[in-house]
Amino acid sequence: MASKNTEQVPGADGQSTGRRGWLQWAGQTLGALSAIALGIPIVWYLLGPVLRRRSEAWLDAGKLDSFSVGQTKLVDMRNRVGRPWSGESARVAAYVRRRSQKDFVVFAVNCTHLGCPVSWFSQSGLFMCPCHGGVYYADGSRAAGPPPRGLYKLPHRMMGGRLQIKISHLPTLAEPA
Amino acid sequence: MKGQKKGLVAWFEHRLQLRKTIGPMLRHPVPRNLGWKYVFGSATMTLFIVQVVTGIILAFVYVPSADEAYQSLEYLNEQHTLGWLLRGIHFWGSSAMVFMMFAHLTRVFLTGAFKFPRELTWLMGVGLFVCTLGLAFSGQVLRWDADAYWGVGVGAAMMGRLPILAKEVVHLVLGGQVLGAATLSRFFALHVFILPGLLGAFLAVHLYLVLKLGISSPPKPGQRVDPKTYHEQYEKLLENGEPFYPNAAMKDAVFSALTVLALVAMAWYLGPKGPSGPPDPTVIPAEPRPDWWVMPIFALLALSPRWLEPFLMLGLPLCLLVIMILIPLLARYGERSPLRRPVAVVTVILLVPIYWVLLAYGYWAPWSPHMHAWSGTPVPPSMLKGLSPEELMGAVVFQNKTCRNCHSLDGKGGKRGPDLTTVATLLNHNELVRQVIQGGGLMPAYGKQLRPAEVEALVAFLDTLRPKDEPRPRQTGPKEIFPGESSGSTTNGAP
Q1: pLDDT digits 0-9 by tens, B125-159
Q2: B167, A90: Cβ pair inside 8 Å?
Q3: Torsion-angle region of residue B42: left (phi > 0), alpha (psi -120 to 50) or beta?
Q4: Of residues B157, B180, B416, nearest to A86 (C-beta)
Q5: What share of chain B in percent tops pLDDT 90?
Q6: pLDDT at B487 over 50
Q7: Any idea what DSSP says for residue A118?
Q8: Which candidate in B144, B145, B147, B178 is best for mutational testing of the A interface (most A CBs within 10 A)?
Q9: How far apart (Å, rounded) are the C-alpha atoms in residues B152 and B164?
Q10: For residue A146, what is the nearest residue in chain B, using CA coordinates?
C-alpha cells in the first residue's frame, strides 16, 4: 500500500518518494506503539482497585464480658483495610448482639436499601434508618420500609476472651459481607 | 499620548492579528431581535468560568486528603481571609450553573433549536450536561463531611444493585474495598482535572458549532425545517440580521453580569454550605441529605414501590440519557415552534413541576422517622389529664417504644405513619390491637416487642384521644388477636 503511494506521488522537492512513504509508515506505527505503551499502564493503574488482591482485617471489638446476653451494643473500631491517611473515615462501627453466652451476631450499620447508618432503639427493639425509613427487627430481619433484605451480618470470632470482627469491604447488595 | 496608545495597539495587532481572527467571530451575523431568552447558555458558560476561577483559588488552601480535608474546610470557613465567601461563591455557583443549564436546555428544547443542522450542537450539550452534573456531585464529595461520606455510600449502594459487574464498579467508585482516603483522592482528580477538562472540550466544539452554523432563529409556526431549503432560508434571514456584537453580545453580557452579581450577593448573605459533621461513620445519629438538585431523586426513592427501585436507580438515568441523545436524531425536521409541538410542551409542563414538587418533598421527607421524637417530643400534657393508670401506662408505652418516631400526636412527631390523635375514630379496639401486634404497610409488627398488657394500655390510651362527640367504630365481631395471625388489611373494617 505504502509503496504504491510512493510511486504515484513524487516528492515536490525532488526527495526520494520511498523515503516519504517510509516516514508515513514509521509515524503511524510508532504513534500506535507509543499509544499502547502509555495506554496499557494507565488503564491497568486505573483498574487497580478492581484487580488488586483483596485485603481483610480482624478488628478488636472489645472484651466478651462487655457484651450482655440479650443486648445489642454499638462498637467502633479502626479499620486497617484502607489507606493510612484515611483519618476519621477509617473508623468503622458495627452492632454486636449477644444472643447467648457463646452466640454472637454482628450487623453492619449500613441500611441495605441505600447504605445510610441505621440507629438502634433498645426500648422498641428496632433499627431505624434516617434516610428513607427502613426498619429492622432486633435479629436484623427486615421489618418495614424500602430495604430489600435484612441487615448485613459481619463475620466474627472469639479469641482470648475478646470479640473480633472481620472487616474487608463496605457492604453492599453486590457484596453483602 | 493618543498616538502612542494607537501605536501600542497597532504593535500588538500587527502580531496577534485579532481583527482577522476574533473580529469576524464577534461580527458574525445573527437574526435580528433575538430577545432575552437566548442568554441562558452564555450565563452557564460564565458560571463555569467563575467555578474554574474560584475552584483554583480554593485549591490554594483546601487539602484533598481524607485526614485533613475537613480541617481545611473549617479553616477556610473560620480563619482564612474571605475563605467563607469563596466557598460560598463556589457552592452557590455550582447550584446556579446547574440551574442555568436546565434553563438553557429547556429553551433549546422548546424552540426546537436542536433540529437540523444543529443536532451535533445538542449532542455536545448532552456531554456538557453530564459533565456539569458530574462536577456538581463530585464537588459535594470534596466537602468531606458526614453528608459527603454517606452520599458516596449511597452511590456505592446504588452501584451494588447493578445486574453485572456490580462489585467491580463499587470498588472502582470507592477506589478500593472501603470508603476512605482512596475515595476522596479519586473524586478530587475527577472534579479538578478530568471533568473540567472534558467539559472544556465539549464546550469548545459546542461553541465552534454555534459560530459555524449560526444561532437558531426564533421559531415561527408553520416554518418547517427542511434540509433542502434550510440553509438558503437561514442565509436570507441573515441578510436582515445584525452582527453578534454589540446588540446580542451585550444582552448576554448584561445577563451574565447580573447573574454573577446575584451569585456574589447570595454567597455573601447565605454563606457556604457545610461542612456538616465530620466524615466519621461511627457517628450514627447522622441524617445524610444530598444537595438540592439531587433531592428529587432522594424523594423518588422513598416514594416508589420496592419493585421499581432498581429501575429508578440505574435504568432511569440511562434511559434519560439515551432519550436525550435520540431527541435530535428522531425529531430532525419539521416544526420548531412550541405552538406546533404539543408533546414537547406537555413534556416540559409535566416534568418541571414534578421536579420541584419532589424537591420540596425531599426537604420535608415525611418518610424519615424523627429519630429523637421518642425522647424529645413528649405527649402533650393536655392529653394526659384525668387518665386512668392503665391509660397513663399506654402513654408511656407510646413514648418509650419509639412510636413517636413515626407517629405524630397533634401534629408533633414523626410523619412516617399517620397522626394517631384521632385514630380511635377510624379503627376499633380489635383493629388497633391487630395493627400494633402485626404491623403492616410501612409499620413493623410489635408483637414481640410489647407484652399483651402494654398493647392493651396503648390502645386504651389512643381511645382516650378520640373526640367525645365521635363514636367508636363498630366492632366487627369478637376477633381474638394472636401474634402471627395473618388476616387482611387492617383498615377494611373502618366504617
Answers
A1: 999 999 999 999 999 999 999 999 999 999 999 99
A2: no
A3: alpha
A4: B180
A5: 67
A6: no
A7: P
A8: B178
A9: 20
A10: B306
B325 close to A (CB below 8 A): no
| Structure confidence at residue B495 (pLDDT) | 33
Q: In what helix (H) or strand (E) does residue A77 lie, and over which residues does it extend? A: strand A72-78
- Find, among B267, B113, B171, the residue nearest to A55 by Cα: B171
Note whether A170 contacts B174, CB cutoff 8 Å: yes
Interatomic CA distance for residues B274 and B70, integer angstroms: 10
Q: Which residue is associated with the grid cell 416508589?
A: B304
Which set of grid coordinates corresponds to residue A69?
446476653
What distance in Å separates the CA atoms of residue B188 and residue A165, rounded to the nearest whole number?
Answer: 31
- B443 shares contact with chain A (CB less than 8 Å): yes
SS (H, E, C) chain B: CHHHHHHHHHHHHHHHCHHHHHHHHHHCEECCCCCHHHCHHHHHHHHHHHHHHHHHHHHCCCCCCCCCHHHHHHHHHHCCCCHHHHHHHHHHHHHHHHHHHHHHHHHHHHCCCCCCCCHHHHHHHHHHHHHHHHHHHHHHHHCCCHHHHHHHHHHHHHHCCCCCCHHHHHHHHHCCCCCCHHHHHHHHHHHHHHHHHHHHHHHHHHHHHHHHHCCCCCCCCCCCECCCCHHHHHHHHHHCCEEHHHHHHHHHHHHHHHHHHHHHHHHHHHCCCCCCCCCCCCCCCCCCCCCHHHHHHHHHHHHCCHHHHHHHHHHHHHHHHHHHHHHHHHCCCECCCHHHCHHHHHHHHHHHHHHHHHHHHHHHCCCCCCCCHHHHCCCCHHHHCCCCHHHHHHHHHHHHCCHHHCCEECCEECCCCCCCCCHHHCCCHHHHHHHHHHCECCECCCCCCCCHHHHHHHHHHHHHCCCCCCCCCCCCCCCCCCCCCCCCCCCCCCC
Max CA separation in chain B (angstroms): 107
Put simply, the answer to whether A174 touches B174 (Cβ < 8 Å) is no
CB contact under 8 A, A49 and B68: no
> Distance between CA atoms of A56 and B336, rounded to whole angstroms?
60
Q: pLDDT band at B482, cuts 50/70/90? A: very low
Chain A residues in contact with B66 by the CB 8 A cut-off are 83, 85-90
The pLDDT score that the predictor gives to residue B489 is 38
Residues in chain A, pLDDT under 50: 1-7, 11
Helix (H) or strand (E) holding A22: helix A17-46
Which of A88, A115, A143 is closest, CB to CB, to B280? Answer: A88
Instruction: Find cell 433540529 and name the residue.
Output: B115
Q: What is the pLDDT at residue B466?
A: 87
Strand A72-78 versus strand A162-167 pairing type: unpaired
Rounded to whole angstroms, the Cα distance separating B470 from B339 reads: 55
Q: A24: which 3 cell numbers?
A: 508515513
Q: Using the predicted structure, report yes or no on whether residue B310 has a pLDDT greater than 90.
A: no
Chain B partners within 8 Å of A81 (Cβ): 176-178
User: Which ipTM did the prediction report?
Assistant: 0.88
